[in-house]
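Appendix C. Worked example: Bifunctional salicylyl-CoA 5-hydroxylase/oxidoreductase
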Amino acid sequence: MKIAIVGGGPGGLYFAALMKQLDPSHDITLWERNAASDTFGFGVVFSDETLGGIGNADPVVAEYMSRRFARWSDIDIHFQDQMITVGGQGFAAMSRKELLELLQRRCIELNVDVRFSTLAPAIEELEANYDLVLAADGINSQIRATYAESFKPSLDPRSNKFMWLGTDQVFEAFKFFVKETEWGVMQIHGYPYSDEGSTFIVEMHQDVWHAAGFDETANEVFPPGVSDEKSIAKIREIFAEELDGYEVLTNNSKWINFTTVRNESWRHNNVVLLGDAAHTAHFSIGSGTKLAMEDSLALAACLHEHPDIESALAAYEAERRPVVASTQRAAQASLEWFERIGQYKDQDPTQFAFNLLTRSRRITQENLRLRDPEFADAVDRNFAASQGLAATAPAMFQPFRVGGLELKNRIVVSPMDMYSAVDGVPGDFHKVHLGSKALGGAGLVMTEMVCVSEAGRITPGCSGLYNDEQRDSWKEIVDFVHSSSTAKIGAQLGHSGRKGSTKLMWEGIDQPLESGNWTAVGPSALPYSPENQTPVELDRAGMDAITAEFVVSTVRAEQAGFDLLEIHAAHGYLLSSFLSPVSNKRTDEYGGSLENRLRFPLEVFDAVRAAWPASKPVTVRISATDWIEGGNTSDDSVTIAKAFVEHGAAGLDISTGQVAKEEKPAFGRSYQTPFADRIRQEVAAPAGVAVIAVGAISSYDDVNSILLAGRADLIALGRTHLYDPQWTLHAAAEQEYQGPGAEWIPQFRAGRRKPPSSRTDAVRPRLSLLKEADIEEANTHLRWTPASAAASVLVK
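Step 2, the predicted output written as structure tokens:
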């Protein structure tokens, strides 16, 4: 093959070396506009997984890298004048300059035509004259811009400012310095990369950056290689204590806003993107160099394994895209956490450290327990002590109070529409459905959205509380839950609004009824989708009538014996549609500003709160973002949450979206939790109000991790409970917990131990001289000690 490579960073160089090893007859030319000696940055970090791949692909490169690595396993978190050390992580880093020199030499050894200080020919010329063109030209890729119609790039510039620096202070571990200054919170990401220096990245929110006066040089244009010395002088002053007399090192150091790069495609004919040109991931989770070298390995392998360029490039993208997407999801969670780090400045240091470690959702409590069991136990003890509770129970089995309602544990069965009522009357199905979840150990079982009127139903199968027959049937279910379990049960009240008069879910979700339909209503005459009914715009009389229906249903919910009431103001139903500017286009006092859009939902809430016993809590479910341009954002959700808290909400159930068909949610594991987290920190916790997290949470490990980090007070699980109605009790068995937070009813008590499976009764012989626990303890706290750079030393 005749191959052109544009970009002489680690990705391009490594790809060239790998291709030459696979077939020395490849004709490879690499262009790099900078000189060979021009190196920006300080250290690069690698995972053990990536190093294993490099070792398999090119033992020469791997062997040299291993001799130059700084290795350590500790993370030191400096916060509120304390240093908390967590071990067992496993890091390896080296100088970026040394890595580039190694790869440059390797390419020359393998007869790659490397042309430094040389601009590549025009992409059209390369595309015409080479079999393959590799665009490894970085985050500002000109090749990507030229073929933007094919690659369809998405660039997401973030709000934090950061600067790459170094220091001649050699850290012993990964360092997070989180410093509260007079201007706001600033943080340092630091790690050693040799026996001579460390990377020292300064990061802060743009508002903090402005307040501290760093914007003084904002309009200055610094030539390549020239650093922002005015800002750096200020950084030396602010972080004098952390630098401890050591120097700050510069290398093309200036303020940057991190940009997340995504592309719908990485291919255009015989042109392919690699590394930062194709994708970026925030430095707080890993190294762009790591991702680029992984790309190179996969691309070289696919080209070798497939008979033609087209199939090879398709295989490369199919192989790498899921890996990159996973990394970018974790990086997005991490960068958003650091953007909001100021909201955690008052957290207890131990909880803060755990919160920081679990920010990307890749590390959890159980995972941490394997890495550093001593710290994991400290987190459990600290959580219990902070709430005056016994330290013997996992976080999910600690009791919690919502208003005046005591719950035995932190697990909620999320409201789930079952579409199985007849004329709004719940029947045996609902009794079995909700009863089984109560027997399964959850602390609080929530009904589906119970509709306040016949016209307020979503589908003909939705239940209601608009007549006495419905009330009596609900009472039978509530009585069963109370008599047969220690669970509490809550009713979620709502009105379908413009999403009403549709088919049962399995007949066509959100599809309009073909017959027997009823008139939908909403804040404006805007249909949920082009297929849905155009709702009638509610006037004052219509709003008053619906408010009265909520009150009557509230009275019936009390008569049925429910312990808690939740107002459904999410997912595009009536109250949600008033809140969202996507569905509310009114020009009167109920439309326009967020204050106006809140008016009717708050009127309904006030009426319900007044009709519901003062001793029982009322919670509210909201959509914290509409996932659509022009819709409500996370900032709006904070205002909405504050309003409901000020009106007496005892809890906030934080969901997202489902307000408009054209939404684009960022799905992923526990993807809605960051919204709950923000509302808890900024609104709920200061007011003593509960926050419920919901959405793609399915493991007890994730549940405990969210609670321990202080991101929510309760966790609602829906589909998980459909999969396993006794999920909570099974989670207790898995964690070997027995206690009041997970009591088995007498009839089920014989099943509280996990049944044995094949070979679980086998007795294993001892085959090692040292116990595994001793080996793990010895490797938990490995620190980088420059005095013996050739061999890492264990520090006890």
